[in-house]
């Protein structure tokens, strides 16, 4: 049995598409109860569902989605509104070329640095908890 990892553009595209379509499906399911209470959020959510199904998107979309889900589970209305607003403001189209960015709003978009850092800190806390138990 071999566990070698050989880079594969085809496998990378498949993984990307699988993750994006899964996120689009989850966002579609979440949008139903959200729109029942806030139909004004419809255009933002619909745009992202279409974008996720169509082509690669910026990584920030996943950070905003994580914040959206976290705010729902913690019943944090302010965080929820922040995530919905970020969906409206975020330019999701991925760049056509590969390039290096820094963990800065100038590269990621307004407010995105804080979102990425918060997710990273949560992952580290979660890992520490699992290692202790």
Verbal overview:
The structure is a single chain. Helix 1 packs antiparallel against helix 2 and helix 3 packs across helix 6 (112-132). The protein has one domain (10-95, 104-132). The two termini are 32 Å apart. The protein has 6 helices and no strands. The protein has 133 residues and is mostly helical. The mean pLDDT is 80. The chain is globular, with a radius of gyration of 16 Å. It has helices at residues 9-37, 42-54, 60-73, 77-89, 105-108, 112-132.
Tally of strands? 0
**Major pleated sheet:** none
Q: Rg, please?
A: 16 Å
Total discrete domains? 1
Please report which band the strand proportion falls in: under 5%, 5-15%, 15-25%, 25-35%, 35-45% or over 45%. under 5%
Helix content: over 70%
Looking at the structure, what is the overall shape? globular
The secondary-structure element order is HHHHHH
Mean pLDDT figure: 80
Poorly predicted segments: none
Structural class: mainly alpha
Helical region count? 6
Please report the distance between the alpha carbons of the first and last residues: 32 Å
Describe the structure concisely for a colleague.
This protein is mainly α. It is built from six helices and no strands.
Overview features:
133 residues; mainly alpha; 6 helices
